[in-house]
Design a protein that fits this description.
Elements lengths: L14 H15 L4 H6 L2 H10 L4 H18 L6 H4 L8 E7 L5 E5 L9 H17 L8 E6 L11 H14 L4 E7 L3 H10 L5 H5 L1 E4 L4 H10 L19 H28 L17 H6 L1
Parallel strand pairs: 2-3, 3-4, 4-5
Antiparallel strand pairs: 1-2
């Protein structure tokens, strides 16, 4: 939860030093499963290093915990039919538009909560994150969140258990994936709830969160800095009348599921043939690098 200091002689702006740290982390991990090998791309290793201020020991521990989590939870195997009921109201979805830098946008609308299932909500969150990462353009590592709190009351607040696990998954298993988040029109009562959940958030994450109010011209300027009003939905102060359509979104997700299944298929067979050692590690498998692999990691 606190900022971590890296060695004073390390310069994160030095490309050679960064590359040395990445190679050191890769070597420290040792042999991985086929899926683990594909997940641990150079971009992935860099994100975990950045999350732990380039401390290899701490980054290795963090990444190994993520590999164990992925081996057990298998986020890449979640399919739309597993979570579609959670998405019926459009409470969370990958948007059809991007920000000014072309980054993937995830829209969240807490007032559209339609279930009380802790596990169902967590699986839906993970599925949406995996799908958003799949659609990140080349050279983009981070996504943008738009969270609409218009009409929110404490009755819409997630249970502390769900909020805690959400924060844990986002920060520990998807590090350095958030570019910026906008909390749109949060009511005063939300401030109390936010003070509670802030204890679960890393200071770096908190710094990326922006409170934006439709009637506050200055805060809307921050929103427009990242979004062209022509593509921004009306519900977020833009001019785009785009609306969530569950049937159309479902069709898109099912097509994406085919791509995801094909991508991980060979690795699933290989991992099945080579049972994991100590939970996650198996004999090293050489995989061919690809753009999709970088995105998936």
């Amino acid at each position: 939860m606190f900022r971590r200091k890296h060695a004073p002689d390390f310069d994160s702006n030095d490309a050679e030093q960064r590359e040395a740290k990445i190679n050191e982390l890769k070597a420290a991990l040792g042999p991985l499963s086929a899926r683990g090998e594909k997940y641990c791309s150079e971009a992935c290793l860099k994100r975990y290093l950045e999350a732990r201020n380039w401390n290899v020991t701490k980054s290795r521990k963090m990444l190994e915990e993520s590999l164990k989590w992925r081996a057990a939870y298998r986020p890449e195997d979640i399919r739309w039919h597993d979570v579609s009921a959670e998405g019926e109201t459009g409470k969370m979805y990958r948007a059809s538009f991007q920000d000014r830098e072309g980054r993937t946008v995830v829209v969240m609308r807490p007032t559209k909560q339609n279930t009380s299932s802790h596990e169902g909500q967590i699986r839906f969150l993970v599925y949406t994150l995996e799908n958003a990462i799949l659609h990140l353009p080349e050279a983009q590592e981070k996504m943008v969140w738009l969270i609409d709190f218009t009409g929110w009351t404490m009755a819409h607040a997630s249970p502390i258990k769900t909020s805690r696990e959400t924060a844990n998954i986002l920060q520990n298993h998807y590090p350095e994936r958030l570019a910026i988040g906008f909390l749109y029109n949060p009511p005063k009562v939300f401030e109390t709830f936010f003070r509670v959940i802030k204890v679960f958030l890393d200071p770096k994450t908190i710094e990326k969160v922006n409170f934006v109010y439709q009637k506050d011209a200055e805060s809307m300027k921050v929103m427009y800095k990242y979004f062209d009003p022509e593509v921004l939905p009306v519900e977020f102060g833009g001019k785009n009348n785009v609306a969530y359509n569950h049937e159309e979104y479902s069709e898109s997700m099912m097509k994406d599921d085919i791509k995801t299944a094909n991508f991980w298929a060979d690795d699933a067979k290989t991992d099945h043939a080579n049972p994991p050692i100590n939970g996650t590690m198996v004999p090293e498998v050489t995989t061919q690098p690809s753009l999709l692999a970088a995105k998936a990691s």
